[in-house]
């Protein structure tokens, strides 16, 4: 089985929930409220402390990615995590430790 990863290696900024625009009850149409509805399975404290990033118009939580521990000969070596869309495809990410992530798509 061959896995193909497609990425443009563009760094995407992560932002914690508590720093999202609209972090108050006075802005009901803000990004904070929209993402709070999307990630409603997180408690209020978990949401505020979770990092989010946007990729191809969709928002992702760093905490929703499954950690990759791959040997050099394995398919997702060099990536820190993946999130499946289907059995054969999904999103991979590499955490850069400067508040950014590199994101790509994988398929097999």
What does this entry look like structurally?
With 108 residues, the protein is mainly beta. The protein has one domain (4-107). Helices cover 13% and strands 35% of the residues. It has two helices and nine strands; from the N terminus they run E-E-E-H-H-E-E-E-E-E-E. The strands form two sheets. Strands 1, 2, 6, 7, 8 and 9 form a six-stranded antiparallel β-sheet that branches. The longest helix has 8 residues, at 31-38. The relative contact order is 0.24.
Keywords:
13% helix; single chain; six-stranded antiparallel beta sheet; mainly beta; 108 residues
Summarize the structure.
The chain has 108 residues and is mostly beta strands.
Class computed from helices, strands and strand pairing: mainly beta
Largest sheet: 6 strands, antiparallel
Question: What is the domain tally?
Answer: 1
Number of strands: 9
Tell me the β content: 35-45%
Helix run count: 2
Overall morphology = elongated
Helix content: 10-25%
Distance between the termini: 7 Å
H-E string: EEEHHEEEEEE
Uncertain segments are none
Radius of gyration: 15 Å
In round numbers, the mean pLDDT is 90
